[in-house]
Amino acid sequence: MSLEAQKTEARRAAFARRKQAHAAQSGASAGVLSDVLAGYRGAPVAGFMPIGTEIDPSPALAEASAHGPVGLPVIQAAGAPLRFALYTPGMQMVEGAFKALIPVELTWMVPEIVIVPLVAWDAQGGRLGYGGGFYDRTLEGLRARGPVLAIGFAFNAQQAEALPLEPTDQPLDMIVTEDRIVQFSS
């Protein structure tokens, strides 16, 4: 089976697990993420607005915005890295690419912490995204400029035994789930 076919199968299985976890969640699930971000008060943070069955980091982003800049990802073009637009709770938003909410007015920022959405993750810090490579290109570029903390935010159910990864797939430094933190050594 080709690597791409392996990734497709891993995504299919992970989407099913994520859908079940999303349906089963009760109440807020961003509390652990808020606790993690509290240790980095004032550092520029980039997060995401959830699409479909993604876990929702918005309560943690709202809390973080009281202490420092928070950004949301904006897709510029296929094959390009993401840029991050400043976000404050209650600001006017519009649907961007893939129906992700982005600020109407785009004021760019550069994060030191990136909260990354994902389809699946493994115990080695591997991440399987949607297949566009946006976060891989973005993290590679940010890391070339200096230290960046990449935090995957996902349900426990999204953990996979092992993921089919390529050399261009950027590792996560940490995973935060609805009830735990998993740190990875570099």
UniProtKB/TrEMBL annotation:
The keyword Signal does not apply. Substrate binds at residues 49, 54. It catalyses: (6S)-5-formyl-5,6,7,8-tetrahydrofolate + ATP = (6R)-5,10-methenyltetrahydrofolate + ADP + phosphate. Its EC number is 6.3.3.2. Keywords: ATP-binding, Magnesium, Metal-binding, Nucleotide-binding. It is an enzyme of class 6 (ligase). The keyword Nucleotide-binding applies. Its cofactor is Mg(2+). GO terms for molecular function: 5-formyltetrahydrofolate cyclo-ligase activity; ATP binding; metal ion binding. Pfam families: 5-FTHF_cyc-lig. GO terms for biological process: folic acid-containing compound biosynthetic process; tetrahydrofolate interconversion. InterPro entries: FTHF_cligase, FTHF_cligase-like_sf, NagB/RpiA_transferase-like. ATP binds at residues 7-11, 127-135. Belongs to the 5-formyltetrahydrofolate cyclo-ligase family. This is 5-formyltetrahydrofolate cyclo-ligase. It comes from Planktomarina temperata RCA23.
